[in-house]
Amino acid sequence: MKLEQKVAIITGGASGIGRGMALAMAKEGAYVVIVDISEEKGAATEKELNEISRGKFIKADISDRDEIKRIVSETVQTFGKINILVNNAHASKQILFTETKPEDLALSFNTGFYPTFNLMQECFPYLKETKGSVINFASGAGLTGMVTQASYAAAKEAIRGLSRVVANEWGQYQINVNLISPIALSPGVEQWREHFPAAYEETVNKIPLKRMGDCEQDIGRVAVFLASEDSSFITGQTIMVDGGSVMLR
Ligand SMILES: NC(=O)c1ccc[n+]([C@@H]2O[C@H](COP(=O)([O-])OP(=O)(O)OC[C@H]3O[C@@H](n4cnc5c(N)ncnc54)[C@H](O)[C@@H]3O)[C@@H](O)[C@H]2O)c1
């Protein structure tokens, strides 16, 4: 058990990659708080977590600054500490740059960048106490400048920049801050496959390992590693868990 009795907060933990990480962490003994706007999916994943370890669903919209304080205080009231913070949820609209409106930019920054910033600040005293780990989320869309992803890519690269600064500032407290840049068959990607099957096939063909990642086995297991003692000498890094799609140099 690599995460025995460690307490994790995972935003967007009700479904997709967030759920995959929650299950993988629970199987390593972690107590997992999932934060999500979806009541139905949140309740279902909470039930799954309680069958493995201990889980708690907090229904909250992370773009609401006041909810950030509630998420942290409810977690500490329930489990007494925070070891792992995973900033996973992120919503955005795919649209050409010239058509991107302020509200599109706001959606991406309010669900991706600001909650990552705010939750890191709010969790700091607890992470300092436990010498904890932060896992933030990047994207190949940001790293490669994918078309129609202006608002999303901008927020994702802002998250990467912020993560490097915080990794430098918190190194002295033995708090690790890393990023995962994933590719996985989440419900969000499944929806895209339904609407654009040819583009989906083309994308999979371009992946060197010729398959989509699995939310729990591929992404969840790497999140366990980044939250465990095994990665205690890694910080400020973007870990590509994307079948080799983007090879950093
Ligand atoms: N799936 C991929 O291939 C892929 C590729 C690159 C990057 N990513 C990144 O990985 C992360 C997870 O991706 P995914 O595909 O599992 O996403 P997803 O869209 O399938 O799931 C996101 C979850 O976040 C929740 N959520 C959305 N807005 C919220 C809000 N305001 N407050 C609380 N919860 C909210 C949703 O209800 C959902 O459960 C994201 O940061 C995404 O940008 C994913």
Mean model confidence by pLDDT: 97
CATH architecture classification name: 3-Layer(aba) Sandwich
Number of helices: 9
Record field, number of beta strands: 7
The strand order across the widest sheet is 3-2-1-4-5-6-7
Major β-sheet, in short? Answer: 7 strands, parallel
CATH class: Alpha Beta
| DSSP helix fraction | 40-55%
Structural category: alpha/beta
Within CATH, the superfamily carries the name NAD(P)-binding Rossmann-like Domain
CATH topology description: Rossmann fold
Q: Which assembly state applies to the chains in this document?
A: single chain
Order of helices and strands: EHEHEHEHEHHEHHHE
Shape: globular
Describe the model.
The protein is of the alpha/beta class. The protein has one domain: Rossmann fold (3-Layer(aba) Sandwich). Helices cover 51% and strands 15% of the residues. It contains nine helices and seven strands; from the N terminus they run βαβαβαβαβααβαααβ. It has helices at 16-27, 39-52, 65-79, 102-130, 140-144, 150-170, 187-195, 197-206, 215-227; strands spanning 7-11, 31-36, 54-59, 84-87, 133-137, 176-182, 238-241. Helix 4 links the parallel strand 4 and strand 5. The longest helix has 29 residues, at 102-130. Nicotinamide-adenine-dinucleotide is lined by residues 11-12, 14-18, 35-38, 41, 61-63, 88-91, 111, 137, 139-140, 182-184, 186-189.
Produce a short descriptive summary:
With 249 residues, this protein is of the alpha/beta class.
